[in-house]
Amino acid sequence: MFSDAYHCGRELIEQFPVNISRLSTALPRETRLSEESLMRDLKKNSDIRKIAYKNTGLVEMQKFFPKLSKPILDEIDTVLAGHYGFTAEELDFILNYDIKYRLGRGTEEAVE
User: Fold this and answer.
1) Could you give the CA distance from residue 24 to residue 18 in angstroms, rounded to a whole number?
2) Among 83, 3, 72, which Cα is nearest to 44's?
3) pTM of the entire structure?
4) CA distances (Å), origin 12, targets 1, 4, 32, 39, 46
């Protein structure tokens, strides 16, 4: 799959090679419950942006802020790490990989 990580159209979703029914039975129950929690949290932390375009008129777009859901993402990563047998060091790497850039931490130093 490829994406610019900003635009996520129907074509990208429909072409993604995953068997959802098989995946849902293969993952630990905790992951499925955390996924439901994540979807609710992403929606709660989103907002609707309205943009007026000359040719198409007013377009509404839902904007998400995944960094606000990081605790839930960390829960999911922790369960998956156990499921796949990751070491504590590997899990720590996943949870903290590039955190200052992904969450905007440490940018004050970069600006100075």
Assistant:
1) 11
2) 72
3) 0.64
4) 8, 11, 23, 19, 21
Pairwise CA distance, residues 109 & 86, whole Å: 33
Q: Over range 52-60, report the average pLDDT.
A: 92
Q: Which residue has the tokens 């900003």?
A: 6
Name the H helices within 3-97. Answer: 10-15, 20-26, 29-44, 70-84, 88-96
Structure tokens at 17: 């090679």
pLDDT tens-digit profile of 28-42?
Answer: 677 777 888 999 999
Residue with tokens 């929606």: 43
